[in-house]
Amino acid sequence: MTRWAAVAAASALALGLTACAPAGEGGADGDVTLTWWHNGTGEPLLGFWEDVAAEFEEANPGVNVEVTAYQNEELQRTLIPNQLRTGSGLDLYQQWGAGELAAQVEAGYVKDISEDVADQVDALGGVVAPWQVDGATYGLPFNFGIEGFWYNTELFAQAGITETPTTLDELYDAIDALKAADIVPIAVGAGDGWPAAHYWYNFALKSCDPEVLQTAQAELVFDDPCFIEAGELLEEFIAAEPFQDGFLGTGAQQGAGSSAGILATGGAAMELMGQWNPGVMGGILQEETGDAEATPPEFLGWFNFPAIEGAQGDPTAALGGGDGFSCSAWSPPECTDLLNYITSVEVQTRFGEIGAGVPVTPGSEAGISDPNLQLVFDGLQSASYVQLWLDTAFGATVGGAMNEGIVSLFGGQGEPESIVQSMKDAAATL
């Protein structure tokens, strides 16, 4: 938890089932219906959340939980914003925090749950900061981790790579060695946009002093040269041709042809992705083989995005974030009760056991049974600074402009300077 306190700086940057009294949306018989949206479209998370909903219903007679999973980008960018604008029809929903949450709070869409989750906030510590605005709590995380390169240990050995890269120069050496062995070095789902953007994020993370990043997040100021340097480094990286053929049209996480599927099936040696990737790969293998018991590949290894020698960034810094839930402003009290249950030690321990992510409630880390998630957990503990995903940190307006600029650069249409200028222009509209 001490490592996660860095997120609090960057953002200034669980307990039992509770019986409920009827409230909120109800039928003639007084029943309460909670509408819950999340992004766990694949197993094991899909079934896990259904189980949690059923348990809550059983412990709270008269409460009905309608839980639905949606694809991440559609949920975040379209479904949730549109539904919140209606002022009804959504109670508990996926929340990524920071700038996006602040905009929802300003619009009056989110319930202040500070008093009802005070014990959880005390237990979670700094990791809850992205779900707070001006000292008030508007959501709680259930998962927090960092991203890095997931890699195929067998292909690394085949290419003669004996150590994982710790510097950018060493990463280039690994790319060259993989190419020499006729192995695609890196898979990227640039067709979905955000996986491409995360390369710029990491170059900025390792180029910029942490104080510069904190100031940029708090004040939306992007004058430091390190932001342009990040684009220049990305240009050089793309020019090295580390990615699979057709990477600009490749999706990230659905099917064998996605970047996750390419890594899972041995078509590339690496993919830069978050802590959820092993679970995604396991789901893809289940779909492709028809084997419901298929698991993530056994060849997986993990390493943090390498340091850049001579740069101002913290060489151990990590880029990360979490998944959480918020209650809409019009949700009944039972919504907060359900959120309390989701963040309980019992549920969080089981969440760790299924390998869907890294639990956040103290005492639940004992449930991390997946060796892949243990790699991420260890990496998180080794990071002296953790920066929240930049599009989340900067908010929808600036983050969206930033992502569009990065994707244009990825496609050979933009410039390093244009990314930063688009961010400044977007910030000026706020």
User: How many independent structural domains?
Assistant: 2
Percentage of helical residues?
Answer: 40-55%
Give the percentage of residues in beta strands. 5-15%
Class computed from helices, strands and strand pairing: alpha/beta
Helix-strand pattern, N to C?
HEHEHEHHEEEEHHHHHHEHEEHHHEHH
**CATH class descriptor of the largest domain:** Alpha Beta
Biggest sheet overview: 6 strands, mixed
Shape: globular
CATH architecture of the largest domain: 3-Layer(aba) Sandwich
> What fold name stands as the CATH topology of the largest domain?
D-Maltodextrin-Binding Protein, domain 2
Q: Please tally the helical runs, counting DSSP H or I stretches of 4 or more residues.
A: 17
Mean pLDDT figure: 89
Q: Could you tell me the number of beta strands?
A: 11
User: Taking Cα atoms only, what radius of gyration do you get, to the nearest Å?
Assistant: 21 Å
